[in-house]
Amino acid sequence: MTQAFLTPAAALMLLILAAVWGGSFFFAELALREVPPLTITLHRVVWAVPFLGIVVWWQGLTLPRSPRVWGAYLVMGALNNALPFSLIFWGQTRIESGLASILNGTTAVFGAVVAGVLLADERLTPRKVIGALLGLAGVAIVMGPEALAGLDPRNVAQLAVIAAALCYSLASVWAKIHLSDQPPQMNALGMLTGSAIIMIPIAICVDGVPQISLSGGTWAALLGMALVSTVVAYLLYFAILTRAGAANLMLVTLLIPPFAIALGTVFLHESLGPSAIAGFAVIALGILITDGRILRMFAR
C-alpha cells in the first residue's frame, strides 16, 4: 500500500497536535496541585462534550439512535478516555509529566501488536514484533533494574501509564470493529459522552463533589486540557488523518514527549535522568521500525 505523502501543511498540523497533546501532561501537573486525578478526568471529558457537540451540530451530523452504537460509545469512552486519563493523571502524582509522556509513547508499538493479534486484516509482522520488543526494552531502561527488586509507588505509577497505553491500543481495535461506519467527529463526541457518564458517579464517589472554588491557574489548566488538549486535538487528529493517513499520524507519538519534557523543564522545573532519555530513544526506535518507512528507505 502506498503511504500518503506528508505535505508541509499536514506536517505543521502534526507538530501542533503534538504540542497540544504534550500540553495535556503539563496541564495535568498544574491541576493536580488542587484537584485529585479522577476529578481531573471528569473535568476533561465533561467540559469537552458541549464544545465538540457544537462542532458536530455545525457540520450537520445527526446523533445516532441505535442502542448498539451508544453501547459501543460507552465502551469506547471507558477504553479511550475514562481509564487511560485516570491512570495517567494518577501516575503523574508520583512521576514527572515528561516521564509520563515518554511511557505513553509506547501506545504506537503496543497498538500495532494488539491490532495484529485481534484484527484479521492487520497482520502481525516481524517488524511489529521487533517494534514492540524495543518498546518493552525502552520501558525497562526507563524503570531501571531496581524495578525488579520490588514495586515502590513510583514504579507502580509508571506501570499505570503503560496500562493507559494498552487501553488506547484496545480502544483503537474496538473502534475499528464497532464504530468504523460512524463519522469520526461523531465517534469523538459519542465516546466523550460515554466517558462523562462513566466518570460522574465514579469521581463523586471516590473524590467527592467537585469543588468550584479553585484558583484561576487551576481552572485555566482544566479548561486548557478539555478545550485545547481534547476538542482542538481531536479536530486536528481527524484533519491530519484525512490529509496524510494513519501511518503519518502515528508519528505524533514521537513528537509528544519533547513538547511535554520542554514544558515540564521550563515551567515546572522537572529534570529527567539519563535512563529516561535513553529509554525514550529506544521507544522512538521501536516506533520508527513499526512505522516501517526507515526500513524501506534503507532497503532502497
What does this structure look like?
The protein is mostly helical and 300 residues long. The protein has one domain (11-299). Helix content is 78%, strand content 0%. The chain contains twelve helices and no strands. The protein has helices spanning 8-31, 37-58, 67-91, 97-104, 107-118, 126-143, 153-178, 184-207, 216-249, 252-267, 274-291, 293-299. It is globular, with a radius of gyration of 19 Å. The model has no long low-confidence stretch (mean pLDDT 93).
Number of strands: 0
Q: N-to-C terminal Cα separation, in Å?
A: 16 Å
The geometry reads as globular
Percent helix, as a range, is over 70%
| Number of spatially distinct domains | 1
Strand content: under 5%
Order of helices and strands: HHHHHHHHHHHH
- Unreliable segments (pLDDT under 50, ≥5 consecutive)? none
Task: Please describe the structure with a list of short key phrases separated by commas or semicolons.
300 residues, globular
Brief overview, please?
The protein contains twelve helices and no strands. The chain has 300 residues and is mostly helical.
Layout of SSEs?
Blueprint: H1 8-31, H2 37-58, H3 67-91, H4 97-104, H5 107-118, H6 126-143, H7 153-178, H8 184-207, H9 216-249, H10 252-267, H11 274-291, H12 293-299
